[in-house]
Amino acid sequence: MAYIAAAVLAVLVSLTALFAGGEACNNVASMTWTAACQQTDRWEKLCQQTLQDTAPDTAEVTVFALIATRLAKLRYENTLSEVDTLLRPGNAPAESRAALDNCKVKYGSARRLLAGVSDQMFACDFSLARQEYIDAEVGVRSCQDGLLRLPNQYQSWPLFRKVSDDHELTVVAYLLGAIFLGR
After folding, report:
1. Mind listing the pLDDT tens digit for each residue in 50-96?
2. pTM of the model
3. In a 10 Å sphere around its CB, with 0-12 CB exposed, 13-18 middle and 19+ buried, how is residue 53 labelled?
4. What is the pLDDT of residues 38-48, one digit of tens each?
5. No. of H helices and E strands in the chain?
6. 60 DSSP 8-state letter
7. Residue 3: enclosing H or E segment and its boundaries?
8. Which of 9, 67, 80, 178 is the most exposed place for a label (fewest CB within 10 A)?
9. Total tally of structural domains belonging to the chain
10. CA 90 – CA 87 distance, rounded (Å)
11. 4 occurs within a structural domain
12. Is residue 23 part of a domain?
């Protein structure tokens, strides 16, 4: 978790320098992070938790979306590591293998998609970002759904909680992006 916090801080420093240097994206509003979070509907509390220690008080909305997006990508990497561990022989029951394989594939794709969204936002190119957010959310939800179809005992796995948390953060990142991308 310290690695993730350090990575987000590094992103924030680079974003602040970029956008403070007059490199803001055209037609993207600036607002407080609390105002941006108010637009995330029922995920407002998670949005606030995500941005309160990492975001500047006021910034272009792309900064807030980019922070949440990069944090989600970093969490995907952490979750993928846990999936890889569970896929090693003897670490998980055979009946869970198909669901774990699905998670590995879907998370790998979602990670690439959010990396692309980050690159696009950093370059103020939003042409594919909306759909890539949606595709990443669908991928993480597919993993979550696969785990839900397993017997109830698997829902107590730490992996299930991580995937659920990752899904919620993906939605927050998408909703922050939707402020300037549209839904």
Report:
1. 999 899 999 999 999 999 999 999 999 999 999 999 999 999 999 99
2. 0.87
3. exposed
4. 999 999 999 99
5. 7, 2
6. E
7. helix 2-20
8. 9
9. 1
10. 8
11. no
12. no
